[in-house]
Amino acid sequence: MRVTIVVKGNRRRTAYPSPPKLVTSKRRSPGWGICMFLSGLILAGFGAQFLGQRIESTVEPTPANLTPALPLLTLQKMRRELADLFPLKTPIARNLHFRQYDILTSLDHDLQGKVTSYIKRRRPIYAAVAAIEPKTGAVLCLVSYTRDRRYRKKNLALLAPFPAASVFKLVTSAAVISEGTRGRTSTIPFTGSKTAPPNRWNMKTSVSYRSHWTTLEDAFATSNNPVFGKLGLFDIGGPRLVYWAKRFGWNEAITPEIHLQQSQLQAAEGPFSWAKTGSGYTTTTTLSPVHAAAIAASMVNDGIMPSPTVIRSMTDNYQRLRYTANSWEGNRVVTKEVARELRSMMRSTLMEGTAKGAFLYRNQVIRGLDIGGKTGTLTGETPPGRAEWFMGWAKRQETGKQLAFSALVLHGSRERANPQRLARYLLTLYFAED
User: Fold this and answer.
1) What is the pLDDT of residues 301-334, one digit of tens each?
2) Domain range spanning residue 246?
3) Count of domains observed in the chain
4) What pTM was estimated for this model as a whole?
5) Which of 125, 162, 201, 396 gets the most CB atoms within 10 Å of its CB?
């Protein structure tokens, strides 16, 4: 090997010769490329299979794959799991997330939002609206509004401190018609003003030249207190009146799902206590908006009062169904024949009774509906104010679509909202989709 020493300046460098180049042939056989291509495919297949096995073996199994489908929760277990969620506070969203559960409610979010905005523009002291499907009992609207800070976190639609007022006349009418003591066209004498409370002057059974005569249907439509006072005092009596009130849900739990405050019935004070109870002229008979809507649903549902429900379904974090709404069988409160008579009386309230003004001029949507209702007005103490009710039902004959509702407004020194017009707005929104 030749080594050349190069001297540059004061430094010496040794230069080694480069290694000889390998002489290769530039021409390759045609089969060489095909062999390389096939080899690559084979190696790629084995590699993909090997890597797939490695990846599949390293992926950790999820709990959904390990845990089999769980049985659905019973109603009692569901209530225990959601104990801190009830009673539902306002505002209520259609989809709720509570702990590890995703809850789908039956509420119509668009309907509820528009009704809430309608009430907020008028700013009453207290207001509540409830609407349910008569056949299933699914709650579609559950609106609560107040300017009182003590009740802002409470859902007024689920509370029952409000006097039932003349809405209780529906129970008295159902009792006298069911027991056969009176009919829808029966004539009854009364003395004095229709709005006067029962007293010793207008509770006389004797008839004088000062007496007026009216039918049961007209007395119901105009909310005649002396007539219904006589029915409660003489025709039905205290024990039977309590019996019929319990059939309609007073002092009872009307739904196994919702944490709903029970409507209370207690005998009023004084010698004409049952007369005041029968006419609704007492604050000891209370009612919640949801209960009022359920009573209205029983009229259009041929006498069967449904159990109101809010929760449609409930799933956990792994999208497993844990609870689904059951079609609770309602309670029959009256027969089909009595329900038909009561529906006719409730129509009279809108045609010639206390709700005539709100429904006198009907828009295109309201004009095509079959509507019945009952009003009620009485001043309560807790919360203070004049409670004004309008509860009823509506049905479109062509499609069979139905809705039962109740609207409650408590007034102070100034009347800011009207429950009848509020119910009219609710019906216009709900049936405008048809």
Assistant:
1) 999 999 999 988 888 888 888 888 776 678 999 9
2) 107-311+329-431
3) 1
4) 0.81
5) 162
